[in-house]
Design brief:
Distance between the termini of chain A: 42 Å
Number of helices of chain B: 0
CATH class of the largest domain in chain A: Alpha Beta
CATH architecture of the largest domain in chain A: 2-Layer Sandwich
Number of domains of chain A: 3
Shape of chain B: globular
Helix content of chain B: under 10%
Structural class of chain B: mainly beta
Helix content of chain A: 25-40%
Oligomer: heterodimer
Number of strands of chain A: 14
CATH architecture of chain B: Beta Barrel
Largest sheet of chain A: 7 strands, mixed
Strand content of chain B: over 45%
Strand order of the largest sheet of chain B: 1-8-6-3
Strand content of chain A: 25-35%
CATH topology of chain B: OB fold (Dihydrolipoamide Acetyltransferase, E2P)
Radius of gyration of chain A: 22 Å
Largest interface: A-B, 26 and 20 residues
Order of helices and strands of chain B: EEEEEEEE
Chain lengths: 337, 69
């Protein structure tokens, strides 16, 4: 029953504008036309908008807001990103499922997305809180033919894509906190976790995890975070946003940027990243293993590392450092516990 | 066999001890670079003869991390 339903939605979803006759559906699904009619009524109850014309057939004119493989794909116009979508209601972490899918040969561009993550992963084993139905929690599988050392560039590319897509879509002014946190009004709205499986000189696959706070109310955010520096699109704009439209915007923007990067290299992505860079040309506090110091954040290097200038005018490239980005507030653990 | 860093970064975690037997594909060290975790795995099965780094060390691309016999 369930699979017939999914096939039916799949058939209707393929044709965005054209009607599909009841006869054709009945032939394809091997069920009677009256069974089709019953299915249609069930779909309408679930929130699908279906138009029926007596001499033409059926077509879908609207999907329910609820995420599913069909709703996310309908109207998505990409060549490879998100052409395969694995949707789950509740998972421990979309990253784990994406790794498993990648090991089982899931194609480049596969997306794993969930309504809710019970053990969402942040960087360095931190937890990422993923409220049910209130945000986009997904992982994207990539199979780039790149040297492993170039993998971090994809994290920065993803950050630039998110800043770009969110800025355009919601009329906000996102900034990127190096290397890959998205801030709106200096509060964290989205995070990125990049994980790689690689040999010495070859990437097997990369999984890019994205967590975006969308429709949480302020109370839902502060109740769940240690430090009150998390935000959502709802909090910043006062509006609810369609998860599906946001997802499609991000995936479409990502595909364009990725193809451009593979073709032309990192330099334009670097410029774009720097245009969104939080505290570029300002003083920041740097904590390394044994000392704290201040320097001016100049931007990022060709491989994505942090470039700072000390008081003697010397430039330094940092691959690993804890930065105090906010005065008197800790940088880490934002929306992570 | 020398196991080398495939990018610059900090040694975040060492997941084996000297003398341990490792399988091919088993993680030996996890680097952190630009907030990414980079697992460095043994390419062949063997014994960890020598660990050349400590947690917290900075390594450049190509630096030897461990020797596996």
């Amino acid at each position: 029953m369930e699979s017939t339903r999914n096939k039916l939605i799949g058939l209707l979803a393929k044709e965005k504008d054209n009607y599909i006759s009841g006869q054709l559906l009945s032939d394809e699904l091997n069920i009677s036309r009256s069974a089709i009619w019953k299915h249609m009524n069930e779909l309408k109850k679930d929130g699908y908008q279906i138009e029926a014309q007596s001499n033409k057939g059926y077509r879908i004119t609207g999907f329910p807001e609820k995420l599913s493989e069909n709703t996310l794909k309908w109207g998505l116009n990409t060549d490879w990103a998100g052409t395969k979508i694995i949707h789950k209601e509740t998972v421990a972490s979309t990253q784990l499922i994406a790794h498993e899918a990648a090991r089982n040969n899931a194609p480049h561009g596969t997306v794993v997305i969930a309504d809710e993550q019970k053990e969402g992963k942040g960087r360095m084993n931190r937890h990422w809180h993923s409220t049910k139905d209130q945000g986009l929690w997904f992982s994207l599988i990539l199979r780039p033919e790149l040297q492993p050392r170039r993998a971090p560039q994809l994290t920065l590319l993803t950050a630039a894509v998110l800043a770009d897509a969110l800025g355009r879509h919601t009329q906000t002014e996102p900034m990127i906190k190096w290397p890959n946190d998205i801030l709106i009004n200096e509060k964290k709205c989205a995070g990125i976790l990049t994980e790689m499986q690689a040999e010495q000189d070859r990437i097997q696959y990369i999984v890019i995890g994205i967590g975006l706070n969308v429709n949480q109310e302020e109370t839902e955010l502060t109740a769940e975070t240690i430090k009150k520096q998390a935000t959502s699109l709802k909090v910043e704009t006062g509006k609810n946003w369609s998860m599906k439209a946001l997802f499609q915007n991000i995936i479409t923007t990502f595909e364009k940027a990725y193809d451009f990067y593979i073709e032309n290299g990192f330099s334009d992505i670097k410029k774009k990243w720097e245009s969104y860079g939080f505290k570029v040309d300002q003083r920041i506090q740097i904590k390394t293993m044994n000392k704290n110091r201040e320097a001016i954040f100049k931007g990022i290097s060709e491989d994505g590392a942090l470039v700072v200038e000390d008081d003697n005018g010397d430039l330094q490239t940092l691959y690993s450092a804890e930065i105090e980005w906010f005065n008197n507030k800790g940088d880490e653990n934002v929306n992570e516990k | 066999m020398e196991l080398k860093a495939n990018m610059a970064g900090n040694v975040w975690k060492i997941t084996v001890n000297q003398g341990d037997k490792v399988e091919s594909g088993q993680d030996v060290v996890i680097l952190e670079s630009m907030k990414m975790e980079i697992p460095i795995a043994a390419e062949e099965a063997g014994t960890v003869a020598e660990l050349k780094v400590n947690e917290g060390d900075f390594v450049n691309e190509g630096d030897v991390i461990a020797v596996i016999d």
